[in-house]
Each structure stands twice: as structure tokens, then as C-alpha cells.
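Handoff note, outgoing to incoming analyst
You'll be picking up this chain. Sequence as last confirmed:
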Amino acid sequence: MRMTREKTVVQLTYLPKVFPVNCYLVEEAEGLTLVDAALPNNVNAILRAAEQLGKPITRIVLTHAHADHIGSLDGLKERLPNAQVFISKRDARLLSGDHTLDPNESSLPIRGGLPKNVRTKPDVLLVDGDRVGSLLAVAAPGHTPGSMAFLDTRNDILIVGDAFQTRAGVAVSGQIKLLFPFPAMATWDKQTSLETARRLRDLKPSLLAAGHGNMVLQPKRLLDRAIATAERSLVK
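Most recent structure output, in case you need it:
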């Protein structure tokens, strides 16, 4: 996996030139927080990256429960039995195989690679405003009902899962980029995604770190453009 560092955050990318799947190591004083767990065959690469940084992975935090974000979860938990696992209270249901929708949620079907037979049970169920070390948990529904983003409060780096993509250009979840349409195809509710995108932009991130594509420094202009595109698309 390719390693790219920006301050306290290291992006790990599997197949960066073909089909980039990202996860992130966030450095804390006492260890590392892994944000997302990529694909099942990425266990060893993630552990090697942690070894290179010289600190143990003490937490595994999931932005949402799609298969390309929780793929190596069981394998990592076997190797790191003391690492705590965090996911939103809402997407914990997806992780367990429950695909039902709440009465107040859009009736659109939940899309994407939904997990099957995941053995690992989360230790902590997150809600908006919770803290995980230096990370602030921010509710970011739309791609899935319980998606979350994580803001590093030390430097305003924002890890967004699939609330945005940066591969083939910055886009709000649900907006198709022809050269990389897959996050859009896996999005549950485009209108909710747009509302989330506005909220994340208002956090004024110094860097945007998405599940697919390179990290983007000073992303305000590109976020504004992506949100405007999504707004035009939804009024057609």
C-alpha cells in the first residue's frame, strides 16, 4: 500500500493507480488510530505501515459499513485483540447485517457492498460530537444512513469516508464522475449527502481525506464547486 503523510495523518492506498481504496493511520502520543479497514487482503500491509511508524494500532474507527471500508476488520482484530473498534450507532446495524430503515429515514434502498458474516463486534457506538482521541466524530449520513466523518482537532484534517470522493475530481457522494462512478453508485440518499456535504464544508477543513482518491490540501474552492454541481443536479 502506498503511504502518504500529511502532518498527523498517513493515507494508505491500495491500488492507487487503478482502483484506489484508502484507509488512514492517525498518530496520537500513545499509538495509532486506524480509520477504515480497506479490503480483506490488506491486513498485512496495514500492520507493516504501523510498524514503520513505530507505534501500535490501539483503535479501529470505521466511517461506514461498506465492504471496502471494513474488509480487513476481522483479520486485524485477530492480530490486534486489544484494539477497540468504533462505528456509528446507526451503521453498527449494517455491520451486523441489519439493512432495515428507520421511520424517519428515506425509503430508498441502502446500496453498495454491504457486509456479510462479520465476526467483529464494535466496542464503542459513536454519535455526533463524540471524541476518539484527537478526532471529533461528525455525523455524515447520505452514502449510508450512519456514515461518519472525523476531524483531527489539532490541524483540521477531515477524514470523510465516502461523503466525498477525490478520485476523478472532488464530488459529493451520489454525484457520478464518469472516470470513477463507483462511490456514487453505492450511495443511499443524494439529498442527504448534499446536506452532509454542506455541513462538512462549514467545518473549514485544511485537508480533505476521502475513501477514494488523493488527499486535497486547502479544499474549500473544490468543495464549493462540488456542492454547487450537486445542487444543480438535484433541482433538475
